[in-house]
Amino acid sequence: MSVTCLSEPAPAKLNLALHVTGRRTDGYHLLDSLVCFTSLGDELRLSPGPLSLSIDGPFGDGLAVDDDNLCLRAARLAGADIGICLTKNLPVASGIGGGSADAAAVLRGLERLGHALPADLQQLGADVPVCLASVPARMQGIGERIVPLPALPPLHLVLVNPGVALSTPQVFAALEQRENPALPEIPDFAAAEALIRWLRGTRNDLEAPARHLAPVIGEVLAALNAMGAGFARMSGSGATCFGIFDTAPRAAESAETLQRHGWWAMATELAQPPVPG
Ligand SMILES: C[C@](O)(CO)[C@H](O)COP(=O)(O)OP(=O)(O)OC[C@H]1O[C@@H](n2ccc(N)nc2=O)[C@H](O)[C@@H]1O
Ligand SMILES: Nc1ncnc2c1ncn2[C@@H]1O[C@H](COP(=O)(O)OP(=O)(O)OP(=O)(O)O)[C@@H](O)[C@H]1O
């Protein structure tokens, strides 16, 4: 029997804009979000079964290898016996979709090995459908309505996490205004400047409740602006924030400076679209 091992990247998810537009009767919130993915992310390797998980990487110690791990839940949902190695490069519970990205990467890998995708992906997490696509997209509903967008212009990004884990349900619970306007129409952006102009007319509605729970987020945003970011905002339910810089060297230099605060700060770019086949 041939032994097949494969690797699958799990890019970090960024909510460039995130509007909360309502709430369903089951308590889930309706969202309207411009989502993109970065070349920085976790890494998954799949090898023939039985079902198992090992975790390494800079944030591996913060994540228990238990049955609830989203990698194992994804494999069980797909009915697959598979050995999974996860290199955890992204901080846990940090608003950049680490768990959802990992689950989606396991499902993408299993699909390459001939497994069918499970029907109800959202039982793994609201962000799993958009992470499965891992391309720039408008995300609506509670995360199930995904409209892929034309490629975004190149962005020189810095991601900063101050080391405070935020619980997504707690951030949603602390939201004061649940019915906000939808995103303005999303044009085809010719350059980063046009995207930044558009972003200035949008919000992350979860930023205020997250800052209430973790005031250090305000310090992170101020530090990104002080470093010369053309735009800075929190992603998802926080606490990770992103800054958009003019050039890759300025992003790299800013990340290095921000690390001196004791924060996780990484320069990155938008993920390249997956190569078909
Ligand atoms: C805030 C976002 O990061 C934006 O991309 C996501 O919507 C969160 O996605 P996620 O972490 O995959 O979220 P889940 O694990 O499905 O949900 C965690 C909890 O967040 C709240 N939740 C999540 C998504 C959503 N549309 N409305 C919600 O109210 C619910 O209390 C839910 O129990
Ligand atoms: N493989 C995984 N990676 C990260 N978290 C996981 C994983 N499996 C289970 N979890 C659990 O999921 C919870 C959310 O973690 P995650 O890193 O996905 O949050 P997040 O970045 O805030 O996600 P989102 O941006 O989708 O809200 C954590 O409490 C963690 O214990």
TrEMBL record:
Question: Which pathway does it serve?
Answer: Isoprenoid biosynthesis; isopentenyl diphosphate biosynthesis via DXP pathway; isopentenyl diphosphate from 1-deoxy-D-xylulose 5-phosphate: step 3/6
Identify the catalytic residues.
K13, D127
**E.C. number:** 2.7.1.148
An example of a GO molecular function for this protein is:
ATP binding
Kindly state which keywords UniProt assigns to this record, in alphabetical order: ATP-binding, Isoprene biosynthesis, Kinase, Nucleotide-binding, Transferase
Where does the record place the GHMP kinase C-terminal domain? 187-260
Q: Which SUPFAM superfamilies match?
A: GHMP Kinase, C-terminal domain, Ribosomal protein S5 domain 2-like
Q: Which residues form the GHMP kinase N-terminal domain?
A: 73-128
Matching InterPro entries, A to Z? GHMP_kinase_C_dom, GHMP_kinase_C_sf, GHMP_kinase_N_dom, IspE, Ribosomal_Su5_D2-typ_SF, Ribsml_uS5_D2-typ_fold_subgr
Q: Which reaction does it catalyse?
A: 4-CDP-2-C-methyl-D-erythritol + ATP = 4-CDP-2-C-methyl-D-erythritol 2-phosphate + ADP + H(+)
Any one of the GO BP annotations: isopentenyl diphosphate biosynthetic process, methylerythritol 4-phosphate pathway
User: Where, by residue number, does the polypeptide cross the bilayer?
Assistant: none
* Highest taxon of the lineage: Bacteria
Q: Which residues bind ATP?
A: P91, V92, A93, S94, G95, I96, G97, G98, G99, S100, A101
Q: What does this protein do?
A: Catalyzes the phosphorylation of the position 2 hydroxy group of 4-diphosphocytidyl-2C-methyl-D-erythritol.
Family, per the entry?
Answer: Belongs to the GHMP kinase family. IspE subfamily.
Q: Which PANTHER family match?
A: 4-DIPHOSPHOCYTIDYL-2-C-METHYL-D-ERYTHRITOL KINASE, CHLOROPLASTIC
* Protein known as: 4-diphosphocytidyl-2-C-methyl-D-erythritol kinase
Cite the source lineage.
Answer: Bacteria, Pseudomonadati, Pseudomonadota, Alphaproteobacteria, Rhodobacterales
* Name of encoding gene: ispE
